[in-house]
Specification:
Length: 128
């Protein structure tokens, strides 16, 4: 079985570097990607979580408008709400973030050194 995603997109907000109550670092990255549907360009927005001590580099080195390559896995869960309904949640957990440098307006892209390959933690403590 394969459970992975790969995006090439643009960072839409400054990355949020945070820590859980236990002190584990993590980062939220917001990404915009483009696709075509019936000949028209559509824009999608993605909320990605990055876990590991190296996430601070993402928060420091990746900014609004930067093109990046992100890969990782999809985490799905179902939870019960207070009104007895069920809520489906999909999380995108990044394992790698690589800035892309654009050397010409023609979009000839060279991949720079990765900001980091991130090894996720076994349990995402304190984040629901």
């Amino acid at each position: 079985m394969v459970n992975r995603f790969e995006f090439v997109g643009t960072v839409t907000h400054s990355p949020e570097f945070l820590r859980t109550a236990a002190g584990t670092p993590f980062c939220f990255l917001r990404l915009s990607t483009k696709r075509f549907l019936s000949g028209q360009e559509r824009q999608d927005f993605h909320f990605i979580t990055i876990w590991s001590p190296a996430v601070q580099r993402v928060a420091e080195q990746v900014g609004i408008g930067d093109p990046v390559y992100v890969e990782g896995r999809v985490e799905a869960s179902v939870s019960s709400r207070h009104d007895s309904t069920r809520a489906n949640t999909i999380r995108l957990i990044a394992s790698r973030v690589v800035p892309i440098s654009v050397s010409s307006p023609a979009m000839a892209a060279d991949v720079d050194e990765p900001v980091g390959s991130f090894h996720e933690l076994p349990e995402h403590e304190g984040l629901s």
